[in-house]
UniProtKB/TrEMBL annotation:
Residues 117-313 form the Peptidase S9 prolyl oligopeptidase catalytic domain. This is Contig46, whole genome shotgun sequence. One of its GO terms (molecular function) is serine-type peptidase activity. Pfam families: Peptidase_S9. It comes from the Bacteria. InterPro entries: AB_hydrolase_fold, DNA-binding_regulatory, Peptidase_S9_cat. GO terms for biological process: proteolysis. It comes from Prevotella pectinovora.
């Protein structure tokens, strides 16, 4: 009898843990299409938070400068991006990557920095499961790295003027977009990808989720992180513990600028220093946005932020 009771309790615990893991996976990576904020929502938010971009935004949309492009990724899903040409012909191009549950239009303030202030061409992709791109879950910037490399190729083809053999690109991401940028930096990238800018990215998906699990639910990492990571592997083909942005930074060789607000608690400011120190190959620089919360460095310090980026990509 005791054996059956013990076995029954064990089965109940396994089922409960599986149920909790399934809930946490859906909670963290689920993003039903009906929940996605519209392009207008993000354009209006940019106008409110960064009012100096308003005239430029109104102009590029009024004059139909913002173009849509779609492609089928090697994994088989339909992906979308928006792009705009520089005011004057140039080989300089920025691929600007959005964050968690955002979309391409949510990065128009950074597009302003590159297009209006620095005279770059800009391409802004919708990552898997975001905006107008297909997808059934959020990839936290890990599997997205392959798509961004493909988008960099598209940007090179779109913006390569007849006088240039190729573009000179910077990949710039914020939050999950920064995690994507760092993940890309650890892979072999074409010569036309020259710089990386990561703004408030996390050291790893595991670290970020473990912190949020403790912050939001008051729970330790073990065992729920382990089982949820395993379930992610079974459902989506990747796990939390393999998604190590910091390991990608260690492997990177091209220049990288690290940005973080020192009042960031969502992706803790404490993650900045380990990431910066992990980069042992190639040029690097750091910009600490004093008093800025998560993803607010540009809003709070846009002039200094712009100068830091301009200086870094201009070297």
């Amino acid at each position: 009898m005791k054996v059956w009771i013990t076995l029954g309790v064990a089965v109940m615990l396994v089922l409960a843990l599986y149920g909790a893991s399934s809930y946490m996976l859906d909670y963290s990576l689920g993003y039903p299409k009906g929940e996605r904020m519209t392009a207008e929502h993000w354009k209006n938010r940019t106008r409110n938070e960064c009012p100096w971009t308003t005239a430029w935004m109104d102009s590029i949309y009024r004059n139909h400068c913002v173009k849509d492009t779609f492609l089928i990724m090697p994994s088989g899903y339909k992906a979308h991006a928006i792009y705009l040409y520089a005011p004057k012909a140039t080989d300089k191009t920025a691929v600007v990557v959005h964050g968690y549950k955002v979309r391409a239009e949510g990065m128009l303030h950074i597009a302003y920095l590159y297009n209006h202030d620095l005279g770059y061409n800009v391409l802004l992709p919708d990552l898997y499961g975001h905006g107008q791109s297909e997808g059934d879950h959020i990839q936290m910037g890990w599997q997205d790295r392959w798509d961004v490399i493909r988008w960099a190729e598209v940007a090179n083809n779109v913006f390569r003027a007849s006088r240039y053999s190729s573009t000179k690109q910077v990949i710039h991401g914020i939050s999950m977009g920064a995690a994507t940028t760092m993940a890309v930096a650890g892979e072999k990238t074409p010569d036309y990808v020259e710089f990386f800018v990561e703004d408030c990215g996390y050291t790893s998906v595991w670290d970020e989720f473990a912190g949020q699990l403790k912050e939001e639910f008051g729970l330790p990492s073990f065992p729920l992180m382990n089982t949820t990571s395993w379930l992610c592997q079974q459902r989506y083909g990747w796990s939390f513990d393999e998604a190590q942005q910091i390991k990608q930074v260690e492997r990177s060789t091209k220049p990288m600028l690290f940005i973080h607000g020192d009042d960031d608690t969502y992706v803790p400011y404490s993650m900045l220093r380990p990431l910066y120190e992990a980069k042992r190959h190639g040029r690097k620089a750091i910009f600490i946005a004093k008093g800025s919360a998560h993803a607010m460095a540009y809003r709070d310090h846009h002039k200094e932020y712009t100068e830091k980026v301009k200086e870094f990509v201009g070297e």
